[in-house]
Amino acid sequence: MPAHGKHRRIRRSRVSRGLALVGTGGVALSLPLIAPTTAGAATAATAAGTPEIAVEAFAAPAAPVAAKAPAATRTYTVVSGDSLSLIAQKKGIQGGWKSLYRANQSAVGDNPSLIHPGLELTIHRGSAEAASARAKTQEKAERKSTAKAERAEKSGTAERANRSERRATPTAATATTGTGASAAAPAVAAAPAAVPQYADNLDGWIRESLDVMARHGIPGSYEGIHRNIMRESSGNPLAINNWDVNAVNGTPSKGLLQVIEPTFLAYHVPGTAMDLYDPVANITAACNYAADRYGSIDNVNGAY
Question: C-alpha distances in angstroms, 222 versus 19, 118, 178?
Answer without folding.
Answer: 90, 35, 58
